[in-house]
Amino acid sequence: MENKELKERFIDKKTGIEYIRLGDYYIPNISIPKARKTGNIGKYGRLKLNYMKKYKIAEYTEMLLNNELKSYLLDIEDECKDKLELLIKQMAEKENVTEELKSNNQLEWVQRMNNIKNRAEEIVLSEIIYL
């Protein structure tokens, strides 16, 4: 039996993958690229994730494999929050739901603001999440 000196590293000519020796074994020298954005995925990001898992399986898988999913979901989260805030502000101005109404009749103000928030959220869900 011939005693060959084992190399510490080598590159497989067929695949182009580099291997590193650990003990008696060669392990592929591969790593997952780091995600570009960090943070917690909120309500809208989770809604988009569930929608993608159910209806956009190819896009979901591709983003997951390319380590782009979390960044995408964080971007969706930010986009939804910004759009929701803008829509609520615009609808409240248009429907004359003001601080004056809040101080004079809190119950009516709360009812109208909840109605506005629900309508704005429906718009955000249909335009961003469920596409």
Notes on the protein architecture:
- This protein is mainly α.
- It has one domain.
- The chain contains five helices and three strands.
- A hairpin with a 2-residue loop joins strand 2 (18-22) and strand 3.
- It is rod-shaped.
- Which assembly state applies to the chains in this document? single chain
Query: Could you tell me the radius of gyration in angstroms?
Result: 26 Å
Q: Pick out the low-confidence regions.
A: none
Which structural class is indicated by helix and strand composition? mainly alpha
Beginning-to-end CA distance, first to last residue: 64 Å
Instruction: Give the overall shape, derived from the CA principal axes.
Output: rod-shaped
**Biggest sheet character:** 3 strands, antiparallel
Q: How many helical elements?
A: 5
Mean pLDDT: 91
Any descriptors?
rod-shaped, mainly alpha, three-stranded antiparallel sheet, 131 residues
